Every structure is written in C-alpha cells, then in structure tokens.
Amino acid sequence: MATDGTRDGLAVDGDRLRRRFDAFNEIGATDRGGVNRPALSDANARARDRLVEWLREAGLDVRIDEMGNVFGRRAGSEDAAPVLLGSHVDSQYNGGRFDGVVGVLGALEVVETLDDEGIETRRPIEVVAWSNEEGVRFQPDMLGSGVYTGRFDLDYAHDRTDKSGRRFGDELDRIGYRGDGPCVADDLHCYLELHVEQGPYLAERDLSVGVVEGVYGFSWLNARFTGAADHAGPTPMDRRTDALVATAEVILATRRLTATGGDDLVGTVGSVDVSPNAINVIPETVEFTLDVRSYDNAAVDEAVDRIEREIEWAGEREGADWAVEEIMRVDASTFDDDCVATIEAAAETVGVDHVRMVSGAGHDANYLNEICPTGMIFVPSEGGVSHTEAEYTEWTDVVGGVDVLLHATLSKARE
Ligand code: HGY
Ligand code: MN
Ligand code: MN
C-alpha cells in the first residue's frame, strides 16, 4: 500500500488536499454520498467558481477559453513550453466524488507544494479542468479537450444539445464560462493526468499506483427504431411493430458478441428512451446508445460492424425502421514512453507499489496524447467501482498518487 511520505522527503500536504476535496464535493452532493454536477449545470458552475477561486488564491494566472476550459498557470524561470496537469470537474448524474476531481485538485496541490518548498522550475506548470469530459449531458465526451486538440471544431461543440434541447454554447453563456480565450492548443512540453482507475485491476492486486501505458479505443453510437404505437389490448401479437422488442434483440446481441469477442472487448447499452413510454401502448420509437471498447482497434471496428448488422436485422424482422449513427470514435492510444518512464521513476521515488497497465475508461489524455507527450497515473478504485455514488479510493492512495504526480511533474518541469 502507499507510504505516508516519500523517499526524498518531498511530499504533498494530504490534509490540505483532503479539506479541499471534501469542501469541493459538498457542491452538488447527493444524499447517497456521490455528486451530481453534470457539465454546465448550476452545480458544475459552482464547482468551477470554487476552483477558479482556489487557483487565484494560489497565485496562478487564471484564464478561461471559449469552451469553458479553466487554466491556472504557475510561471517558470523561463517562458518555455509548460507542463500541463489536470482532468475534469464535471460528473456523471449521481456519480462519484473521485472521478476527475482527484486529478484537478491533485494538480493544484502539486503547485502549492512547490510553492511551500520554494521550488522554482524552468518550465511553467499549468493546471487545467476540461469541460464536458463525461459526455453524459452533452455527447460526445471529452468535448473541451477535443476542441482544444483540434478533434472537434468550436461551432460543432457549441451546437451540441442535451436531451431538453439546450445548446452547449448557450449553457456556457448562462453560467458565465464562455471565456474569450481561444480554445486552441498551446505548445505543450507534456500533459500528465492523475485519475482513479475506475476498474478492478489495482484493487485486486492490492497495488497503489497504475503507470498507465495506454487507453482503450472506443466507439459511441446513437441508434433508433421506429415502429407503430398501438393499443396494448386489442392489437393481436402478429400485427405489432414493437420498437422496444427490436431494441431488446440488439441489447442481447451486443452482450453476446462482445462477451465472446476479443478478450478485453466490452459493449454497453447505457441509455434507452422509449416513446410514448406508457404501460398500455406498444412502443413506437426507441432511441438508445451503444458504447463499445477495446485496446484492439480492429476488435472495436468489427464489433461496431456486427452491432450495426444486428440493428438492421432486428429492424427488418420486426418491420421497424432503423437508424444508427456513430457519434464518436477514439482510437486506442499508447502514451509517450518517456512520460511513462518518468511516472514509473516517480513511483519508485515515492516508494509506492506500482504496475504498468492500460485504461478501459476514456480520458482527456486520449486527445492530449495526439498533440504532445502524455502520461497518466492511476490510483485504485475500491472494488473497481466507478460512475456510481459508491465510488471510493483510500485517502492514503490518493495522496500516494498525488506524490507521484508531484515528482513526475518536477522531473518534466526541470527538463
Ligand atoms: O466514458 C468514459 O470513459 C469517460 O468517463 N468519459
Ligand atoms: Mn473521468
Ligand atoms: Mn467518468
């Protein structure tokens, strides 16, 4: 398990970080111990305000760009390409307290520790909180980092709407976070992100730190069946076009083909909207989502093709119209060898047990990895659980992960 210090004596202030973490997670707290701060919601706005206040108190130069990404820069002795640290503060609906927050507040703690120790670095160090990493209210996910790295253009992102039709750009205006800074990548020395693992790998091995070598590729699909609403009573079974029956076929097919596909292949139907959604009406339309992932891009491609054929086949058999659209495709990516090695050396310095591994969850690091050397540090998720209010990481492991981020940052900022 994590140590309570580090081999070279340089360590973060775990109590200060804990006070911040607890205060931050009072914002949008749910009564089951989680948080509800979806992107650009009022709770997310309050969390942003709190973060900006802390960044300013830490003496950082704060700027907000036109996607609402929040940056806080600590000057270096030279105006060189910065080391960027961060993650996100938007959450799932009723999500966990650790997802994203550990990476943003951990980055702030690194900066404050360097200030406490009077350590100046050659390179500036910048803390970032990306907008809409989760992608639950506005798809696709990682939208703020996606525009920043050139994956999406600004108008596309601002025009994304949530289920009630509200535009991303309008919601940014409403909460006062459409900054005037251009959402365009700076010349970065590297990007490092600390995050909870969100899977069982570290917890099952009782390890404290994951040195992340890469991230799964994934595809998000929006699909729709259109059948015929009719009375649930008088309509004979052989005269129905039931959109939900077709959907059920696809859900089971997705489970079957991903469970028997590649070793790490996973597939999820996470969101299903039935209309008119009434107890005595045959479902007319169903809109549903698919999330398919693997570290093997070919496995994702094949699974997506097969699921699209399953959708067509289920529609034909039920006589329902069907439509499917891929709204996001991220290739599996491997992180920069030197960043990975730097993180591994930092874990040695800190004295925490660590292992190299791959991430099944998507992160802003996926996109940053396309424009600069990138690395990630994982800390364990108790029981491998995440994206629920029960998400939990032992505090000693959080502090161990932030100590590793501190040492890796110091190495990179001195280069
Ligand atoms: O979907 C993901 O992996 C991330 O939480 N956005
Ligand atoms: Mn996250
Ligand atoms: Mn998440």
Unreliable parts: none
Provide a count of the helices: 12
Bound molecules: (2S)-amino(hydroxy)ethanoic acid, manganese (II) ion
Write the CATH homologous superfamily of the largest domain. Answer: Zn peptidases
CATH topology of the largest domain: Aminopeptidase
Number of domains: 2
- The rounded distance between the terminal residues' Cα atoms is 30 Å
Helical proportion, percent range: 25-40%
Number of strands: 14
Structural class: alpha/beta
Give me the CATH architecture of the largest domain, please.
3-Layer(aba) Sandwich
Biggest sheet architecture: 9 strands, mixed
Order of helices and strands: HHEEEHEHHHEHEEHEEEHEEHEHEH
Mean pLDDT: 97
CATH class of the largest domain: Alpha Beta
Written description of the protein model:
The protein is α/β, with parallel strands linked by helices. It folds into 2 domains: 14-215 and 332-413, 3-Layer(aba) Sandwich (Aminopeptidase); 217-330, 2-Layer Sandwich (Alpha-Beta Plaits). Helices cover 35% and strands 21% of the residues. Strands 1, 2, 3, 4, 5, 6, 12, 13 and 14 form a 9-stranded mixed β-sheet that branches. Strands 7, 8, 9, 10 and 11 form a 5-stranded antiparallel β-sheet that branches. Helix 1 packs antiparallel against helix 3 and helix 10 (337-350) crosses helix 12 (395-413). The two termini are 30 Å apart. The mean pLDDT is 97. One manganese (II) ion binds next to loops.
